[in-house]
Amino acid sequence: MNTKQFIPEKSTSFIDNKTYKWQTPSNIALVKYWGKSDPQLPKNASISFTLNNCHTITSVSFSKSTNVNEINFELFFEGQKKDAFKPKIAQFFERIQNYCPYLLEYDMVIDSENSFPHSSGIASSASGLSAIAMCVMSLEKELYPNISEDFIKKKASFLARLGSGSASRSIEGPLVVWGNHPEIEGSSDLFGVKFSKKVHPIFENYQDAILLVDKGEKQVSSTVGHNLMHNHPFANQRFNQANENLSKLSKILQEGDIDAFISIVESEALTLHAMMLTSNPYFILMKPNTLEIINRIWSYRNETNSKLCFTLDAGANVHLLYPENEKEQVGLFIKNELSSFCQNEQFILDKVGIGAKIL
Ligand code: DP6
To answer: Residues near 167 by Cβ (< 8 Å), separated by ≥ 6?
Structure first.
């Protein structure tokens, strides 16, 4: 794999006291990434919808380093110094240091905030790390003015991936594939690429309502979770299945076969949880209300002509996915029926978005 393309030549310029600010979104996987090998390479290809309202806004200020032998940064989250988040970011900088050697010449102050409540059970690593990656690439663009916009996005996704796999899918939108797949041109284990085929209009502006069933800290960290796939009895079948599902989904997205879409997306969510149920140690990450919501979605679909379906992350929250033309009806269904199964009746209405924005 060609990672050399991401190693710049030594820069002769220096930019002092400069701040860059980016807003980058969260994403929701339709075909899930679950299982990786070093260094942050996925065991199967995945595809996600980029979200619009759930995002992180991050600014990074770069000033002359006080110690060029190591990467120095301070971290503020929603205005407060947040040392608890530092180790993940420190590991990220360690992993990207070879690809961004110029970072050693700067002290960085990172200031970050999420549009969604921190303790909502919504993973913030995808939006959080992609935002820092974009700020780093803004600096790189000033140091190396000849790099192209395409290269900037590709390298930002490459860097973000080294912080958190799913973050590689948070630079662009509305659909991003990460992981090498024979039918997706340009796809790579190293970075996410925009799903470039023409998508059927039914999937445009697709809606995602996130039902906050359990807002607590994640019961299983993603690192522990991915590691459960090493020596998992069903690992290989799962990785093959995911790649096959991506082939099928690619056609479905182009042809607009929404019933086939529902069947793959729901099966992917349940398979992700099946992997956790059958790992050693084993975990149940769904809560009774997760199941209650799923059953009510199925009844609602039986009783109406709705194309509403669900997907899950590695947690208890439920993402409801539905076409834009059902926005009002599903909105009422959530408000009148499903919200009672959410913690404090909380949910977030979101939709598909287009990716990172400079501020
Ligand atoms: C279940 O990207 O959070 O959301 O690479 O260890 O940071 P790390 O894992 P992470 O895993 C996300 C897993 C998932 C499925 C998905 O987003 O594809």
So the answer is: 125, 126, 127, 128, 129, 130, 133, 160, 161
